[in-house]
Structure formats: structure tokens, C-alpha cells
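2024-03-11 09:14:02 INFO receiving multi-entity request
2024-03-11 09:14:02 INFO entity count = two
2024-03-11 09:14:03 INFO echoing inputs for audit
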Amino acid sequence: MSATLESEVRTRRGVTTSLHRTELVLAAVAVLGFTALAVTTQGNILQAGTLRAVLQFLAVPIVIGLAQMVVLAVGQMNLSVGVLTGLCAMVSASLMSDTGLPPWLAIPAGLAVGALVGLANGVLVVLTRINGFIVTLATMSVVSGLRYGINGTGTYQDYSPGLVALGRADVLGLPVVFLAAIATAVAVWVFFARSVAGRMLLASGGNPFAARLSGISNDRSLVVAHTLSGLLAGVAGVLVVALAGSVNASVGDDLLLPSFAAPIIGGVALTGGVVSVLGTCLAAFIVRLVDVAQAQYGINPRWVDLVVGAVVLGAVLVSQRRGRGSS
Amino acid sequence: MRVVCTQLVKLFPGVRALDGVDLDLRPGTVHALLGENGAGKSTLIKVLTGVHKADGGTVLVGEGDDEPDRPVVFSGPSDAQTAGIGVVHQERNLVPAFSVAENIALQALPSRAGLVDRAGVREIARRCLAMLDLDLDLDRPVAELSVAHMQLVEIAKALATDSQVLLLDEPTASLTAEEADRLYDVVRRLREQGHVVVLVTHKLEEVFAIADVVTVLRDGRSVAGSVPLSSLTRSDVVDLMVGRAHTERELQAREVDRSTTPALELRGVSTSVGHRDVDLAVHRGEIVGLYGLVGAGRSELVRALLGLDSVTGGSVLVDGRSVTIRSVGDALRRHRIGYVTENRKEEGVFLTQTVTRNVAVTVWDRLARLGLVAERRERDLLATYQERLGIRLSGPTQLAGQLSGGNQQKISLAKWLAADCSVLVIDEPTVGIDVRTKAAFHELIVQLSEQGLAILLISSDLPEMVALADRVAVMHERRLTGEVENSHDYAAMSGRIIRLVHGEQAADAPPAA
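2024-03-11 09:21:47 INFO inference complete, emitting structure
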């Protein structure tokens, strides 16, 4: 009995105390990578326009990474985050283009769709007791279909010049969408660090039985986590709408890997109970740098997926080693 | 608060787990709950804490020491908590990544506008730890605490909901003698404050050391309901538990021939998990005990030896030949070293597989013809060991998970015997096993050594160590601090071993490296 407990505790200890170390390492890698890119491109990346683009297109990866992190916190996965982002974007755009709704109604509607699908995921997981991986694999398929149901393969554009202008605007030299992503990250951080609901969610993820004996409903934690994940996918969808200026049903197809890459590289435990908002954001930035490097050097884009995939595997390996090695 | 249970009944499919249990918990007492495995202790605790709902009987709760008059029905753990009944389970139930303070306050996190009130959390934790006279760093993640400290945090956690009745399930199972003493101090303190502490345990020494009242369960009935302990002797209690006169078998000191080459020898071994300069030899026919505090690194040494971690220095000799063991399979097939693990449920047996497969798993490659394992051969193998070890089974297709703890442990042992091992490492063989099975197990281990097996016994149960081992090596912080020849005189032996445990030199110096 106690040997496995001890080994489990050792693993967790490795995870918790190394979290700050992970964040430090990621920060160092981010700074080094950015500097290296700046130097090798003769400062091209430092030009205002390039820098803006780097940060603008960092917004969605951060939020989608957080959407995945929230379910990883309870030891689950959400395979539907990518396509759900697409669905939310399509719903918002359709309401503005087809129904003529103003953005201040269409955006909450997009967020609501995300939260509702997330809620459905959570309720299905709790009611059926089927693993979240399988449930969200199924809903991924359903949501993907719904995405195409809205407007076929057609593209929405010119839905709201005001919203798009806002999406491309700057405040204090920083893109608005990037600031929105950072604000979202801060909100998620407050949720996990300070809110009762967030602490309960982490308790359920860290030790479900202990949580139950402390009067915490693990089912509730699962539903909250999935709903929040869906809501964050909705936020990502809205950011896409504001940023892109035109959306079609293929939005979100390439978001599943990034959604896992950010939290996993960021040091979030796959077993649940440990999250790192800062790590997730930094990891999203590093992945973004890989993208930038690809564009700057004219590398075949397929290499990016390969590199990111390999880094994710590596990150999981490193965190396992660390868990085993520390004592 | 006083709690009186009358004629509690709990039915499971095919079993009357509780069949008329009476219990009277009075404030300011330490109440021992005794019984062999399967007697119904765990079920009773689960009923009292709202995990299970009783199928019959009543639970009455009253203020102070008055005759209770308020009937209660718990439909979930939180109901029991609200009523003032707290529990510390055998398994640690803390959230590893959370701080000490937050774990203590988790059941009712103080909050303001949906945000956790951190000052409030620390205030609760400080108050509860003060009741226990404990000084722990409130902000430390519990994952960094020792097992003993985690347990104290759980007690503090139970106090946070103002528990007047505190159930401790096998609290000292993974504690050393000194840590257990510390826990007893805490228990006494709680008694002085007017709490009821219910102690579920297998250790009679413990019961006689701190309990005032005892309830003994047998086959789901209370055969002694809330009897003052002062009116009973130790053997009375054992009789009540087993239901027949029971004599503890005394094992005599044995002569072991140590002139031969040791079956297993470590010379100056260091490991990747921090062991340094470990010298240890086990001869054929000998039982060498490896004693130490929980966390001293005993199991870890064996795991490194078997290739689960790595040996980084010194040499390992099997029958005098220097060897490198890369994996458990290597240890088993090339060097005939078997490892009976401590956690039979997690590591020792495959709970969802039949007993036949469990026994044969180590020797499938030997039983197989053309890559296929014939079921008949497996059954023959099982039959051999079923008789030799006295394993009680309903049939060869019974699932290992359906067996009692003692029989599971025997299956785990049979598996290694089947592999024809010449060296057996047995880790905590009788944790959580009842008195009667324990004695049988001890005899079995001695028999095995008499048949020529070299046995390295890891145990945190000092009486067990003194009963079984021919020699006891003591480990402290991943080094061996000494070795004691066993005189089988408990008082003398325990004194010498305990001194070594705390890093002092024994009267007889350890053999030169």
C-alpha cells in the first residue's frame, strides 16, 4: 500500500516543485528562441508589423491551450476543442451575416454555443461514465458536421467591419486580440488559484476520492471543467472571427495538436490536479516561434507539425523522467 | 457528543457484512475496534461515515454524555461530517498538490464572492493544528510531507469540521514506533478535549497502550460491545477475536550455517536512489531481516537490486558470482531471485485474473509448448502450491480479487515459489492480515527457509522481525547502520534495533566492509 502511495507522492512532488522550474525553463527558451530569430533574420522579426503578426496569431493558440488545460486539470481530455472553435466562429459569423445581428449579440451567442457543447460533453461523461476521450471523440465528429451544416463550404466575410477593425486594432502598441487572450488567461489563473470552484476542480483532479470525502462532487467538477473548456473554445472562435475577417467551416481543423501542445509543454499533469496558466501561455508562444521560423526561413510548413509533435512527446517524456527521478 | 448504535445490519449480495452490531461511543474515551479481516470493521466504519447506508438498526446521537435520543440517518459522507463524525482512512486522502492549510480546510473552504479566502483557510488550519499541538508549514504542498505527517494533517482535517467523533482506520500501519508514539500523544490530547477516538487496528500492543474501551467484531456481530479494557487481558481479547483459545507460537533461535558462499551478497553497493556502501549477505536457509523507518530506503534497495532502479556502485554477487541484474525478468530467470511485493493488490496479484494464471505467470515460458500454455499444466502447478501453502479457494477459476488478503498474499508467494527461486525477497508480508493468518504465514516463511531458500525479509513490524529473522540488518537514511544477531528475546532485541534505527551504534559493531 504505502509503496505505491509513496511513489505516487514522489511523482506528484516532482510535478509540483518542478512546475516553477518548468516555467523558468520555458521563459528562458522563449527569450532565447526569440533572440535567435531576431538575430538570424537581421532584426526582421522586431519590425512593428512582424511583431504585431506574431502576437496577433498567438491569441488563438493561448486560448485553445487553456481550453484543453481546463479538462486536463480533472484528468480528462477534450478532443472537440478545435472543431468547436470552428463551430462557434461559424455561428457568430452566420448570425451577423445571415440574420443581421449586431456583434454585441452575435459574440455572446458564439460563446454560449461553446459553453453549451462543453456542458453537453460534461453531462455525457458524467451520465454515461464513458471516458471523456471517447465522448469528445464522438462529439468532435458531430460538431465538425454541424460546422459544415451552417453554410456548407461557403465563406462568410464582411460580416461586421467594426468588429474586424477592432480585431486588428492596437492598444498601447499591442494587438487587441492578444490582450483579450491575456485577459482570458488571467481570468483562468484567478479561477484556478483563487476561486472555490477552481480549487474544487483541482482537488477532484488531484485525488478524486479525497475530494469526494471532503464533500466535493467530482461529477460537478467534470461538468464545470468541460463547460469551461467549451466556453474557452468559444472565446477562441470569437477571436478568429474578429481577427480573420472571413471564416469558413474549415476553421479549427488545425487546432487540436496546438491545444495539447501548449499545456503539455507547459508542464500540466496529464493525470490531473496540476495546472500552469503561465506555462501554457509560454509554451504557446514557443510553438508560435516555430511557426514564425518556418515563415521566415521558408521551410515546408509540414515540418512545423512534425517539430511540434516531437516536442510534445519530448515534454511528456521529460515530465515522466522527472517524476521518477526526483526523490 | 455520544453516539449509540444498536443492532446495525448491512447486507451485501450474498453476505451479511454486519449482522447485529452494538456500539456505544462516549465522549472522552479512546474506543478500540477489533476483529479479524472480514469481521466487518471496514463496513462498520463505512456505515458510520455515511459511505454505506445501513439496512437495519439505529444510530442515535446525543449531546455530551447524556443518553442519546436523536436518531440519525446518513445518506452520504457529508451528512456524517455535519453530524460531527470524522474519519481518517487507511489510504491517504489528501490532494498532493495542495498546501497543508488548504487540505485541512478543503471540506468547507471559506470564501468571499466565490474566491477562496486565504487568510480564513490559514486561520482554520492554524486552529486545528494547534489542537494537535503540531507545528507544520501551512504553505507546504502535502506531497512533500512524510507519510506520518500526512496522517496528522488528515486528523487536523477531520477536526476542521468540528468532529466530535474521530475514526482512525489502522493509523499506525505505515508508521514507525516513534511516529506511532507521537500519534498516541495526539490521540490522548483529543481524549482530554472530550472527543471520542475510535481506533481500528490489528495491533494489540497499541490497544492496550491507549484504548479505554473495546468492541470486538466477529463475523459481522459484536461479540464484545463497548467493554472497558481494564476488565480484559490480552489473551481474553485474542480469544474474543478468533473465537477459540489461541496460542502465539514462539519461534526458537536457529543455527544457520554461514560458512557457505552466500546465495545473495551485496558489497559496497550504491544506487541511483541514494544508497551508499551497503554490505549485506543472505545464506541458504537463512532469514535476514531488513528493518528501518518507513522511508529509510529498504524497498528501494530491493527495487534497485532487481533492476527497477539502477545499482551504480559496488558489486552484487549471486552464489559468489558477480552479476548485473537488468530487470525483474533477468533476476527471476537467470539468478532465481523472486520478489514478493508489499502491495499485493497493486503489484502482487492480477485481481481480475484467475488464480491459476496468477500463479503461472512467472513460468509461462517454462510451461509453454510451441508458444502455447496448456491450462492443465497451469492447474497442476496451482494444485501443488494450493496444498503446500494452504490456499483456500473455491476453484481454479476463482478470480484473485475475490480472495481474502491473506490468501492473495499466498498466491503472490506461490507465484515466486513456482518460479523455483533460490532467493526470495519478502516485503511486508503480513500488513493488514489478521492474527491467525499471520501466524500461519510466519510458519510458512520459516518452513521455506528450512527447505534451503535464502530469504530477505523486509518488515516494519518489530515483533514479526524478532519472531522470524535470524539476523536483523537496520537501514537508516539509505545506509545500513548495523546488524544484530537475533536472540529472540523481544525486550533486548527491540532496544538494540531501535537504537540502530536512530543512527546509534549497536553494542555489537557491524561486520567490517
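2024-03-11 09:21:48 INFO post-check: The domain at 11-38+50-325 of chain A is CATH 1.10.3470 (ABC transporter involved in vitamin B12 uptake, BtuC).
2024-03-11 09:21:48 INFO post-check: Chain A has one domain: 11-38+50-325.
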